[in-house]
Amino acid sequence: MKGTKKGAALLGATLLLTSIVGCSSKSNEAGSSPSGSAGAASPSKAAEGAKLPPVTLKIILPGDRPADMDAVIKEAEKRMADTINVKLDLVFVPWSDLAQKTQVMLASGENVDLIFDAPWLHMEQMISAGYYEPLEDLLNQYGQDAVKVRSQQMFDANKFQGHIYALPMGNTHLAGRTYLVRKDLREKYGLPPIQSYDDLIKFAYKVKENEKGIVPLLAYGQAGQKDVSWGAFRAFMEYDPQILRSDALGQSLVLYYKNNDGKVYNLFDEMEPRVWSWIQDARKLYLDGLIHPDILALKDIDSVINSGKVGAAVYNEFGVPSSMSAAVAQNVPGAELEPVTFIQMEKGKNITNFKQANFQAIPKVSKNKERAMMFLNWTAQKDNYDLLAYGIEGKNYEKVGEDQYKQIGSNYSYFPYAWIWNPTTDRLNAGFDAETIKHYQFNKDADNLTPSILTGFSFDPGPVMNEISLYNATEDKYYNSIFDGVVDSDETWAKFKKEASANAKKIQNELQKQIDAFLASK
Amino acid sequence: MTLVREIVKNKYLYLLALPGLLFLIVFAYVPMAGHLIAFKRYRLADGIWGSQWVGFDNFKFFFMSSDWYKVTFNTIFLNGLFIVCGLGIALILAIFLNEIQQIVFKKIAQSFIFMPYFISWLVVSMMVFAFLNTTDGILNRTLEANGMDTQNWYLMPRVWPAILTVIYVWKFAGYYSIIFLAAITGISGEYYESARIDGATRFQQIIHITIPLIRNVLIVLALLGVGRIFYGDFGMIYGIVGDTAPLYPTTDVIDTYSYRALRQLGDFSKSSAVILYQSVMGLVTIVIFNYIAKKIDKDSGLF
């Protein structure tokens, strides 16, 4: 019954909007083509005050619905009632089904107004299949605030095929990388705060000597997580030159960039001595029993960290997430995690292509494109952002100054990255240590980073599809075993090279060709 | 005309079959047309007919790799083990359950054996990890306590076909044994009675009455299993082994291999190509095995 009512409301809302658009003497089709929507001028005035008829937006988000979601929606709808008059129908799709479900939703033409997508999900495929609306005109007309809170670099770098097909979500311009270290153990051994990788390893050996039942080092080993294997993770924290992963093989270091020179390097052609030293170091650590013996079989790394049985683990953000420090403290009384990162905070030191990992797109089939953009614009205002990102003030969170917050309880879990994230209005977790907050603030400013020469470039895998799929299947067999040090480095690398180098070469050539064309057109 | 007469004559029987037939048409026959996209460069936006024909191009990614025969072998080998051990042990279980005289104990035993069937693969995978892991796995702890060396099971591919078979049997033997048990219950008591009068022991009754009389059920279940022998159980293998690379040599099946190769590309056509390969090979095997079954005993074929 509930479903029918909702459906009816949606239908009614759709009819109403259609009639409005009809009044402005523009047909629906015009609204769905990128050039045509510029003509639909009348609703833009409405956004500035006049009351619009209510419209329900169906928004697809990843993850689980927070317990207090309904209260937040109610408050948001109340605030929007007098201006853009949007009602929210949020559909949460579990992470495990996300790729498939969203793909089917789009393919079947389900009436969705905003949808989460990402390059690591299926963004490129969906764009080239023509499901998403280019956003330039909508942003110009209704999205001024949404534009203002994001840097120009963010928009320039996250174009696909020359268009902005989705609004980039990100609260920083450089992805954080951290080693989570058991602070209590470090202090127990009387070691000073960890400043370098060598310090970290020294700490790990101490853990090995003194604690039975604690694994000194933990990284990822499942084949889908190659960038966070122990050896490969170091690429994020070492400089001169910085070694960056390629656009063609996502997580792998086999093809890579360095020196910001627009060249694609290939480890099979010539082994980078630094990468080889990482591999050999990982091998030594594994043989010495420092790296988790089951590293390749572990599927849920977070729960192992949470159990408190790990000395130091790799982590994909700056800072210790509050859920983890709480869990560790609960499982092992007295235990405490501290973040250690060797990413430098020096202007221009880090090269980035400003690519973001999360996006919100407006599907072509949506009948409420203008309203969807108005909504995204609305979320860019500080108070509204606070509501949607952190929940009801006083109940779900407390403001700490202008740019930090403290979470209360766990009824409104954190998911702004999925639909509203931006570097300007985002608040930082006040539970973070001073150093972490400094890192976040430093990287919020795009000008603190050196733009990659390939900023704005995106790789079209079409011509080398077969090679990529063959290469991926081979790489999965060896890569993490090598970079986590589980197998003999020389022997396995030789095997890997023998099976994969032909395909890697073809991918490298194609990537280089596309990069050359991109640089030539710049 | 004879067809119409046949339908009119048995209209209630056909009516009874109608939902099942509709199900098969909608979910088994209509989707067959989708195999077409195995030969096209399918793009969602262009639709099935609008996409470009590419011949056998989509099969290349699979057959060009050096691994395709290895994963095909693994698929058949593992499924073969599952069919033989799964059905064999289910049969033994069913016979044992049938011999239990005390009703209450029989029911309880039956429920316990059946229970694992309801546990999802994800949970099973966690149980397996808790059992086998190196740091605090039950098995390694036990070995240690008995003064033996611990083993890193997740680095030993050769033991995994056995481990997976044990897990499969544990999960499915109860389910199949219920089917066998139903067939055994259908056997007339008179056979046993006359056998007892002739002085047959219980063991002889089992060998000469029970097993021959439920042979057909066994063969049907085996043939159904054989028909799917080219389909690796993705939920099971990926759930338990996941992306644990050292175990690929013995546990990588066609389904997991294609999943890994295609997961970043999300290519419908290439995955259809793999499915078509599996279906065609499955069809060939089932035809062959059905022929053999019929050769040995006329009545026991599926068709």
Describe this entry's structure for a reader.
The complex is a heterodimer of chains A (522) and B (303). Chain A has 522 residues and is of the alpha/beta class. Chain A folds into 2 domains: 180 residues, Periplasmic binding protein-like II (D-Maltodextrin-Binding Protein, domain 2, 3-Layer(aba) Sandwich), CATH 3.40.190; 251 residues, D-Maltodextrin-Binding Protein, domain 2, CATH 3.40.190. Chain A is built from 20 helices and 17 strands. A 5-stranded mixed beta sheet of chain A has the order 2-1-3-13-4, with helices on both faces. In chain A, strands 6-10-5-11 form a 4-stranded mixed beta sheet. In chain A, a hairpin with a 3-residue loop joins strand 14 and strand 15. The longest helix of chain A is centred in the last third of the chain and has 32 residues. Chain A is globular and about 70 Å long. The N terminus of chain A is likely disordered. Chain B is mainly alpha-helical. Chain B has 2 domains: 55 residues, no CATH class; 240 residues, MetI-like (MetI-like fold, Orthogonal Bundle). Chain B has 16 helices and 2 strands. In chain B, strands 1-2 form a two-stranded antiparallel ribbon. In chain B, helix 4 crosses helix 16 and helix 5 packs across helix 9. The longest helix of chain B has 32 residues. Chain B starts with a helix and ends in a 7-residue tail after the last helix. Chains A and B meet through helix 5 and helix 19 of A and helix 4 and helix 15 of B.
* Sheet with most strands of chain B: 2 strands, antiparallel
The number of helical elements of chain B comes to 16
Which sequence of strands runs across the widest sheet of chain B? Answer: 1-2
The order of strands across the largest sheet of chain A is: 2-1-3-13-4
User: What are the segments of chain A in which pLDDT stays under 50 over at least 5 consecutive residues?
Assistant: 1-48
Strand content of chain A: 5-15%
Beta-strand segment tally of chain B: 2
User: CATH class of the largest domain in chain B, anyone?
Assistant: Mainly Alpha
Proportion of strand residues of chain B: under 5%
Any idea how many domains of chain A?
2
Helix proportion range of chain B: 55-70%
Distance between the termini of chain A: 57 Å
Cα-based radius of gyration of chain B, to the nearest Å: 24 Å
Sheet/helix structural class of chain B: mainly alpha
Q: Which residues of chain B form runs of ≥5 with pLDDT under 50?
A: none
Q: Describe the global form of chain A.
A: globular
Structural class of chain A: alpha/beta
Q: Name the average pLDDT of chain A.
A: 86
Q: Name the average pLDDT of chain B.
A: 89
The CATH topology annotation of the largest domain in chain A reads as: D-Maltodextrin-Binding Protein, domain 2
Distance between the termini of chain B: 25 Å
